[in-house]
Fold each of these.
Amino acid sequence: MQRTPYDPSLPVHVAGGAHYACRMCGGGCRSYDVLLTEPEANRLSYSWWRSLLNGVPDDLPLVVLDSASDQYTLNRVDDRCVFLDTDNLCIVHKTAGLDAKPIACQFFPFQAVQTPDGLHTSLNVSCRRLVEMNEADPPLDVEAGRSLLARAQAVATIGESIPLTPEITIDFATFNTHQTHLSAILTVPEDSWAGVFDRIIMAADYLWTLPGTSIDPSIDGLSVFHALYKRMHAKIDSRSSLRALYHRSEAAIESIFNNGLTQPSMPDGAPSTFCAQIARQWLDGDQAALYRTARTGWVALILALLLGIHGTAAQFAAGQRADHALNEAIADSVDLCLSPAGQIALTEPAQQALLRNLKRISEL
């Protein structure tokens, strides 16, 4: 995946079922590091903002610069954005209007990927209230998205040639063929968790048939989870948002360690259909392009669903509503796969070992 300037001449494709209206939960303002352009960083560093803030120490910089990446981000306090008010609303938005917010904040949870056949738009599946969206909410505002993209520095882009694995390249038409197969498997709603788990197994079975790196038979099928757990506890990530993410994700990984890749105990019902919504946004939106290879993006979807289901079981057992528990657990799992720990853990051998393990389950 590369990032290139937005091409406004491209036709727009909107993911099926992409309806959205902000529930003002403040989840995105607590879970992510907001990346800023230099003009945004300068504007949001002004000292006069401080009189509007709540619970932000006077000596805490509002904007920080990562010297390694030369990237500006909004600072955080108590695992929330410095501009998040006590009413869960953005102080910048309330004071100066929507257009004063960073582009990254205005864009969320809109997702866009440029491809040879157009601009694919979808919902960022890390939104923590996505489970509540339905057809009563407005569809994605494509024109508003175009306006934001025109002001963005770059957009995730895939070209005519796409890496399937580090060693194998496929053309865009072949990429679409695989996406269509996975969509036929994963975007079918299921009212039972057994049905959802069966579809995850079927998708893994299909990915196993794709050409890939041969692996040592001795590699454990849970190696990706062991690698995730190790990296999460290596304390290499200083950002508070990542530390909080890793802490929330522990229960899901520990559940898999204790129970294996099985369907955890949860009541059947409507929340299980949410997995199909997630897969629809991921696949229709070409979100696999956010990863270093197409297969990594597809395996990350399977991994996020598995982690999300096991994380939901742990949260449900603790008394949380099943629908919100599933939404939060999957959102955390998606973020975990995109985090430094996830990128390191999703090696080619670990991916293959996971797929092989799930294929063996399908053969039982």
Amino acid sequence: MGGLIDVAFPYRVKKSFGAASFALVFLVIIGEVEALVLVALGIVAHRFDLFVDLQPVLLPGACFIGLTSAGTFWWRARAWTKARIASLSLWAGGATAFGDRLVKSRTPQH
């Protein structure tokens, strides 16, 4: 029942970073790039007409930035999400179970 928060932070419901999370990051970055250029050209430079005229160049550029950023985040989130889910699973077992696993992982095996 978390909705958008579960898409943005899928590890909270013990899910991996999937297509919905990728799409959300992609769309947010496109919106941020467009908003940044709108503020720079439309508000600071008082050239809103230039912002509109540059859309054939600006939108593909924003899509490229969003795609590469979301792809990089997805690539890095795979390992991070797995580690986060494992950590949450250990904590769900209780503090003693977490401590027992931690001790086993740090003791040298002969």
Amino acid sequence: MGVQFTLRDRDMKPWTTLLVRTIAAMLAAIFISAAYSARIYFTDQPAGADGYVMSVAPDGTDQRTVITVSNAPDLRGIAFHRASRRIYFLDTGAARRIYSVAPEGSDLREVTSISAGFSADLEIDEINDRLYWAETGDGLIRRANLDGSGLETAVTIGAGTFTAPYFMYVDPVGGHIYWGVTSSGSTPSNFRRATLAGVIDPAFLIASPTRSRDIAIDPTSATAYWCDRQTGSLLRRAVSGGTNQTVIAGMNAPHGIALDVEAGKVYWADSGKRDSGPSNTSARRVARCNFDGTEYENVSTPLAISEPWDMTLDTSSPTFADWRTRFFSTTTADSGPVDDADGDGAKNLQEYAMGTHPRRSASVPRIALQGTAVKYVRRIGSDLASRVEVSTNLPAFHYNGDGSGLVWTTEVLVTPVSAELESVVTAAGPALAGASNVFFRVRVSMP
């Protein structure tokens, strides 16, 4: 089964036609055996019981216990390091350690010890491979290499209920560390920031109605998203200033937060410990919604004593099935590979293959000419198969490896776009030397 269409570039020569075909080999999602997949990792730290690092798929399926921690644990911050595929988590209980572990729970390692005071959050700078955590009791944000070496103070903030750092976020691209102060009761709180060099910005402040919890930044829109505990709300505001906007309200006690910027989803961990708050929403669960607050869904399945504190995302999408769990809610229609959810003329499989958003009609797969070559984006490290095919006399097409022994196309430039996408420029090969008419198509298929 397939779909075929023709795109014309405004600079296209009259004799050149760009023909693109996307093939979906199966109507249903294909699950392949992979070493990794899109997952949510979160700490669950019920009082007086074992602590847990848990994982679950973005659509709430396949919940697992990664590791159980005994001996008076108090698991708090958690972060995922994509390059090494390891989970880092902080135990501020009897152990007073930061650990790392593989996603399946093997190879537990001690990374570094932490202060004798309370420590709250943990974050990773993926660009510089540095680990950051808030030593709340001492009023410090500390950092180290991923193996615990190079330990140093990143920011000296000061101790105290209305000063010390609690949850935090590291933005290495923007060059800032953000944190919320602890506060107490239902009194107002705020977020501050400093440079990576530890210089506090005296002019920056985001006010939160009550006790601030975790914060995250969407770099594409320079928007801050955060949890406000006592109102049970997720809020947002432009980093540069402006009015707070409510993303979603009516939660119990939202704490940890993470953004899937590509999919436009916000995730949070709700400890369920606000006695006056509603218990029929996200209490004791990990939940998610779109950036505009729509499509609210509970994701994790809690125990009666669960207290999820913090969470982190692995947005790897080696299969269409993984990608679909990130972009679509469990009840969204038209989420199959040959559906066109946003009506932009591109099938969902095509949007997956070329890294566009399947539910935003302005985000359309683009295939263009670069000189007399074809330029497009392709997904790497996935279960997809793709190739550029060429023809001089439709409908017959040829491609490298078609048994003819000829070189029909040549990749002239491959540029990384992200961890899973790359931009490719492909030109006609030696077999087409002197051809006056050349037709290109990009063929994508699932096994």
Amino acid sequence: MAKSIGEGSGYPNLRVVTYPGVINTHEFDTIRKNVEKVLVDQIVKALLEPAKKVRTASTVEREDREILFSGTLEAVNQFFYENMWTDGLPIIPPTIKKVEEFLKYTDRSPDEVLGILPPRHVKATVWKIAVNGVMAGCRPEYMPILLAVVEIMADPNFGLEHSGSTPGWEAMIILNGPIRNPLGFNYQIAVQRPGNQANTSIGRFYRLFLRNVPGFLPGTTDMATFGHMFRAVVPENDETCAEIGWKPLHVLRGFKPEDNVLTITSIRAISDPFQTIGEKAERHLDYIVDWVKRIIEPFEASEQRTESNVVLLSPVVASVIAKGGYSKEDVNRYIMEHAVIPAREYEWNLAINSPQPVTITDLVKKGVLPKECGKSTDPNRMVPILLPSSEFLIVVTGDPKRNRNTVYRNNHMQGFATSKKIKLPANWGKLMADIRK
């Protein structure tokens, strides 16, 4: 991974010294021994040896309109697969004609650059977005959403460069706004199931573009231990939000109700799609908190990791909670305040995730944890498992007649929740009218 990223960053002969074994399975004394007895001599040798002749990077950025292959559908798919330009599934060949159909749905120039994306550090052009949209099986009218997806990728706050980290996180794409229905998104029963073209193909587009443009490839720049499959887009049920007096996600994030907005956050872990029952809001909220405590590791907060986790609530559960007087902001606050565990459990989690002993008191002294956590030495005192800067994105979606919910754990600043307004072309109304005809 280091060599591949080095090559893409302009250092094709990056010198790499490898630690013997898996460092996180070693105790501190073993790590010290390996550094002193194995690594030091290799590091010195690598620093002192003569520089090798610089070679041309193997990854060449091609011209956007370059014709790479002609042939049958089967031959095209085999050619793309052999060049690692597919996700293992058949693709739609991106012919010039099909790409130009996508470009009709944006006012932007095909040559406009939305960003320079790591690890290959290549240009993310409008043309490349259309190409990968065709390949993923998207419809041309999805183009404004595809552009918003890549704008989020290019945002430094999103942390795209971490997409190949070992937790193997996958993006959750959340959609808000009136564009949802005209484009045919599913936001009810089986919202994340493959099968609906808009939800599924745009989710696939994210992973395909990530592979083909910035260049995250398994085994080199993508070192996911297990990894996740790409996710179908999750549109929010804005109508239910309005009915129960809740703000949809994009409004809570500073956009206008009439705006079409995309929010993307990383997902590394998922709870059971658990049910909550009863007429009291707190009964539902307490069980949601219970699941939050099951999937959050306290040591992450000790490493100053802010998280943007997600809770999907079915409309029926959201309605019960709203009837109890809670807003979305209240739900987030309730989870944060009640997601606490005994100090002894917290320190046990620290102990098994650190090569050296560390205590809550140590973290308070360093300013990592709030001072309140160190006011007592009682091992049974309750300590929050998340930093105050963390949050839960509350999204109402799914089957409107089922009382189930799911908690999704974010991978902190790697794929941190980022939102962008979807920019529609000036003639969007006419384009959609033509489709309806």
